[in-house]
Amino acid sequence: MPIENINGVSIFLQEFGSGSPLVLVHGSWVDHMEWPFVVPLLAPRFRVTVYDRRGHSQSQRLPTQGSIREDVADLAAIIERSGAPAHVLGISMGASISLRLASERPHLIRTLNVHEPPLFDLLLEDASTRPITEELNERFLVVADSLASGDMEGGARKFVEMVIGPGTWDTMLPDDVKRMLINNAPTFLDETRDPDILGIDTAALSGFRGPVLLSDGSETPPFFTMVLDKLAAVLPNATRKTFAGAGHIPHVTHPQEYVAAITGFIDASS
Fold first, then answer.
1. Mean of the per-residue pLDDT values for the chain?
2. The whole model's pTM is what?
3. Which residue, among 25, 23, 21, has the nearest Cα to 90 in the 3D structure?
C-alpha cells in the first residue's frame, strides 16, 4: 500500500504519469478516488499526485482536533516531495487548502486551479451577502448536529443534497460512494469545529502573483460564484471559467471538458 509519512501522519499517496508535477487536492468527505475520470487524461502530460487527506479513507485519522493549517502543511510537504514548484488543482475544501498555501508559500505553486472553494466567511464582509453566510452556517450546523449525534448517514445525506441537489443521495450515488462518505463523516465534523475553516487572509492572498484559474459550474449554488467574485477581486493574475451544465463536481460529470480547460490554462500560463 503506498503509504508515506507526511508531517508525522500516515498518508495514502499515489503517482501516475510523467512530466511536470501536478498535485490534486480533494474536498471534504471524499478521497483520492474523486479523480478516476481525470487522472488518465492528465497522466500523459503530467506526473500526477493524488492522495487521501489526513483523516480520510486510507490516511491516518488522529484523535485530536485537526485544523486546515495541518492540511496546508501536508500539501506543502507533498509538493516538496513531488518537486516544487508544482501545478496544483483543488476542488471544494481542497481548493481552500490550495489557496491558503498560495498565500503562505507562493514559491511552491507554479499554477493554481481551484473550483468552488467554500470560503463563505468572505461573504460576511458586506451587508448584501452576509445573510447568505448566516443561512449557510445554519445549514451546516444541521449537518454537524446529525454527525455529533452519531447519525453519520443522515448527516452525509443532508450535506450532499445541500451542495449538489435534492434527491442526489438516492438517485446518483452508488453504494461504495455512500460508504466512503459515511466513513469520512467524522473528519467533516472535525472541520466544522475549526474556526478558520471558512475564511482566508485576503491581504496575504493578494501577494500571490502566479496564474490562478477560478472555476465554477453553471448549475452550482450561487454562493460559490459569490465567493469566486471576492477572490477574483484580490488575486492579481486570476482567470474565470464556468463549466456549462456542471455543478460542484465537473471532474466527475464533465471530465473531458474539465481537463481541456485545465491543460489549456496551464499551457497558456507557460
1. 94
2. 0.95
3. 25
